[in-house]
Write a structure and sequence with these properties.
CATH class of the largest domain: Alpha Beta
Radius of gyration: 21 Å
Distance between the termini: 62 Å
Bound molecules: adenosine monophosphate
Number of domains: 3
Largest sheet: 9 strands, antiparallel
CATH superfamily of the largest domain: ATP-grasp fold, B domain
Shape: globular
Order of helices and strands: EHEEHEHHHEHEEHEEEEEHEEHHEHEEH
CATH architecture of the largest domain: 2-Layer Sandwich
Length: about 400
């Protein structure tokens, strides 16, 4: 008979590797339930550190610091999946790391991730490995144009990727992107982008939130809406695929599956995030249990909470460009009574940096989406800040 696992109860300390907004919202959820939170990252005065009990500033490669950090907590999780495998291993000498380092290993590299998914019969965007200009030409012949060349590791929010419209652009594209290992993907003419955030407990139970409908701007998530306005069959299939991913990866924790829904109605996985995801931020205000509280529950071996959506909702990211002409007008957004403001405590509002988000609740997804856009536009009303046309 398998050993029953030990539950980690309120009053215990949980360690978070990484210190951004995901860790901050995790820490807020954890502290609300009476846990202590320790965070380790190379920075100080971080979004997570500002609300944690203990902030350790150390490189992820400083394995002695990582071991000391893990010794001081009952379990370790992460909010940033690009921590080196050795870091997760060092932490695991002293505390359970959830999800396991093997999940990080698979998902922090696009080639490993897509190969894993394809090997398990899950639908991914057609891809080829590229290590030389010759491979790129062969890949373009196989996949056709347009295609997208991406670095295999450490890419996010469109960083390290370039669209190739014709074979003549291959050499220039190959020279313009740093790295040694790449993935070439077919460019998908999608109808929309969707995501499923799901959680798997220590006992193997899986739960999911409503499918989210996402729109991106400059490759960065802009707006997420729940529930997604899609056919029931697509909804069902997206959830089934997400469940299969969590099971095959043996995840204990929260994981997001990002999809393209093609014009012909096919779902293709774009990428995985083995942690709470930006598209799931609205669960904080709109669901019985947020993705962050659920992450805590999975890490601690507690029963999972209800993922029920209380009201249709939409989330809009607040990027640094909103600060272009000074501090946004926070009171104007607060004048929308069904809109919630989240700011991450980041000190420097760089252009594409995620500084915070707004969540709007409404009677239906359409109204929620409209309301969150209006509230965001109100932050910079009368200023010349570049927003999408419908918001100006
Ligand atoms: P990624 O960092 O790979 O998630 O890419 C960020 C965004 O770029 C995606 O959410 C899409 O909007 C777009 N994108 C990435 N890969 C592709 C692709 N193969 N086809 C079409 N759009 C893509």
């Amino acid at each position: 008979m398998s050993q029953p696992f030990r539950q980690i109860l309120p009053g215990s300390a949980i360690g978070v590797l990484g210190s951004g907004q995901l860790g901050r919202m995790f820490a807020i959820a954890a502290r609300r339930m009476g846990y202590r939170v320790h965070t380790l990252s190379p920075e100080s005065d971080t979004p997570t550190g500002q609300v944690a009990d203990v902030e350790i500033t150390a490189s992820y490669d400083d394995l002695d610091a990582v071991r000391r950090f893990a010794r001081g907590v009952s379990a370790v999780t992460f909010e940033f999946e690009n921590v080196p495998a050795a870091t997760a291993q060092a932490a695991a000498e002293f505390a359970p790391v959830r999800p396991d380092g093997s999940v990080l290993h698979t998902t922090q590299n696009r080639l490993r991730e897509k190969s894993f998914l394809a090997a398990h019969g899950l639908p991914v965007v057609p891809f080829r490995r590229v290590q030389s200009l010759g491979d790129l030409h062969t890949g373009l012949e196989a996949l056709g144009c347009p295609s997208v060349l991406k670095t295999a590791g450490y890419g996010y929010d469109g960083k390290g990727q370039i669209k190739i419209a014709s074979p003549q652009q291959a050499a220039q594209a190959f020279g313009s992107i740093a790295g040694q290992d790449f993935i070439l993907e077919s460019f998908v003419d999608f109808r929309c982008e969707l995501s499923v955030v799901a959680a798997r407990g220590l006992d193997g139970q899986i739960v999911h939130w409503d499918v989210l409908e996402n729109s991106h701007r400059n490759h960065i998530l802009d707006i997420s809406v729940a529930p997604a306005r899609i056919e029931a069959s697509v909804n069902r299939e997206a959830v089934e695929i997400a469940f299969a991913v969590l099971e095959k990866l043996n995840v204990v924790g929260v994981l997001c599956v990002e999809f393209f829904l093609t014009q012909s109605g096919q779902l293709l996985i774009n990428e995985l995030a083995p942690r709470p995801h930006n598209s799931g931020h609205l669960t904080f205000d709109a669901c019985v249990t947020s993705q962050f509280e659920q992450q805590l529950r999975t890490v601690c071996g507690l029963p999972l909470g209800s993922t029920q959506l209380l009201r249709p909702a939409a989330m809009a990211n607040l990027l640094g460009c909103l600060w272009q002409e000074g501090e946004p007008d926070w009171a104007a957004a607060c004048a929308f009574p069904d809109v919630k403001l989240h700011l991450y405590g980041k000190l420097a509002p760089k252009r594409g940096r995620k500084m915070g988000h707004l969540t709007a609740l409404a009677e239906n997804p359409q109204d929620a989406s409209q309301k969150v856009r209006l509230a965001r536009a109100a932050l910079v009303r009368g200023r010349s800040v570049a927003l999408p046309l419908e918001e100006v």
